[in-house]
Amino acid sequence: MIELLYWTTPNGHKVLLAVEEMGLPYKITTVNISKGEQFDPTFLATSPNNRIPAMIDHAPEDGAGPLGVFESGAVLEYLADKSGQFLPKPARPRYEVLQWLYWQMGGLGPMAGQAHHFLHYAPERIAYPSERYTKEANRLYGVLDRRLAVADYVGGDYSIADMAIYPWVHLAPRHGQDMAEFPNVKRWYDAIAARPAVQRTYEIAASINTAPNVSEASRALLFGQTAKLPAAT
């Protein structure tokens, strides 16, 4: 049994989508980041970076007790290896997938996330960071569009790299991006959106987070963190 420590963010959606696609038995333990549940010591024992998602495999292959993994990219790799799906074993196709997974982790996610923040969550609109991150997100969408001009999916076949990228592209308008500018991304996006596992993922997310707006108290928890951890609520 896989226990997903989950909240309804793009990074959270990645791992929920993966277990839905892979058919792995799982349960969800919600970690409401708007209420500060990411600072609970029990959660921090698995995810010391106080970020979702994380997972606990209660029946790992080594039989040595529960195995926890944090960071969404590492979780995706673990689940793919456990299930034997969506990540090839031979080196060449495997690293074709992994390089795009890491591209999302180090590029698209952080840059689109910053664009999202400065466009929608910053207390005042500041032109320089808004433009800086929107342009960098646009550059990365261009990289993705050129890749998808020569491949159906980013790793060749549908893989965990697509599962990592899709939840961020799902929010393209929130990063200031017009999908019409990227026809290959739009074709890829529509193909993935039609998959039953993707549709189930977003239905589950909607049933969990029925009040997605961020309050002022939540803003302080989400955007005002320092090295000192706040008390869990």
UniProtKB/TrEMBL annotation:
What the entry lists under CDD domains is as follows:
GST_C_YfcG_like (cd10291), GST_N_Ure2p_like (cd03048)
Q: Which residues form the GST C-terminal domain?
A: 90-212
Q: Which Gene3D superfamilies does the entry mention? A: 1.20.1050.10, Glutaredoxin
Q: InterPro entries under this entry?
A: Glutathione-S-Trfase_C-like (IPR010987), Glutathione-S-Trfase_C_sf (IPR036282), Glutathione_S-Trfase (IPR040079), Glutathione_S-Trfase_N (IPR004045), GST_C (IPR004046), Thioredoxin-like_sf (IPR036249)
Report domain GST N-terminal positions: 1-87
The record's family statement is:
Belongs to the GST superfamily.
Q: What protein name applies here? A: GST-like protein
